[in-house]
Model the fold of this input.
Amino acid sequence: MFYFWTLPTHSSKKDGVIVTSTSKADSIVNSDSNVSINAGAGKDSISNSGANVSISAGAGNNLIENKYRSSYVTINAGAGNDSIGNYGSYATIDAGKGNDSIINNSSKVSISAGEGNDSISNSGDDVTILGSTGNDSIYNSGDNVNFIYASGDGNDVILQSAKIDSRNLTVNLTSSSYSTTKSGDDIVVKVGKGSLTFKNALGDKITVRDSKGKETVINAGRTAFKNTTVNETIKKTTGSWYISNSGSKAKITTGKGSDGIENRGSNSSINAGDGNDYISNSRYSGLNVSIIGGEGNDSIVSSEQDVSISVGTGNDTIYNSWKNVSINAGNGKDIIYNSSRYASINGGAGNDTLWGGSGKDTFLYSNGDGQDVIFEFGDNDLLKITGTFSASCNK
Done:
């Protein structure tokens, strides 16, 4: 079954506007500053490109995007399994109760994930992250990041990206009692029955500050794997690896671990294998790239054109922000956010949430794939269905 969000759409293009919506599912697009948005309860989609904006999404499984240069924005997602993408600096994000997915690509941002098993991806510097209660999964490639943790918050795992220089991280605890251990390349901070595990953190400087203000540096100094050579074959098939590549025509292969891969090399191929992998493909350098995520709950961020993305079984999150991209999410409850054009999107089996871009996107669906939802399906977009089907429209 396939659902199109033919929702009430509210648009704001004037300063000082207050947008108050219904308790139903709404689609709200704002492009100006000094706006207050109150969407009410319901499964809402909100897109903002204005500065000094307050967003309150209300209860429901909401999809919220704060675009580039949209600074000083406050996001309150409310209770529900929300998906939030932030690209503006000086933002404050409160995801509320639920199993939320948060991606932040900007600096000087405060993130509170709320109660639930949340997924957070951060590439911004000078960021504060509070996972709160629940077993949270956090990917971090930013510097000067402050993690806040209280006893009972859960067993959180922080996956660090590849970085050649030592990264400065701070853990602020609400308790004065804790312990730290090293396990292989990991650093584990135990507080009560919970813990913070920094995966492959031996390239970072981690400062733990307890509730009395006492600071302890528990680790410093080790470089990660980096490649700048053209036409290089990189094969790391055992363990969890963190690879930074800026050489073109690279062939990168990793195994069953939870890997972090950052690519800036054009005409390259990436096969991350099985595991909960994070893959970042950068703008202005990572064009004409093939990405295979394998089985696992993968997070993939791509911002270059002419890219092929394919993942296996798992609940994957894929963000694409440039044109001529092919995405195949495989089996699982996937979230695919596309903000560009000329994308081919196949959610695969499972109940997926798909987001169309600025036009001329193609969505592929086969009979039995699941109950998928498409946001921003426009007049120039195309739905291709394989197998028998029936169609109806609910306005």
Residues 169 and 206 are 5 Å apart (CA to CA). Residues 2-9 have pLDDT under 50 and may be disordered. The first strand starts at residue 2 and ends at 4.
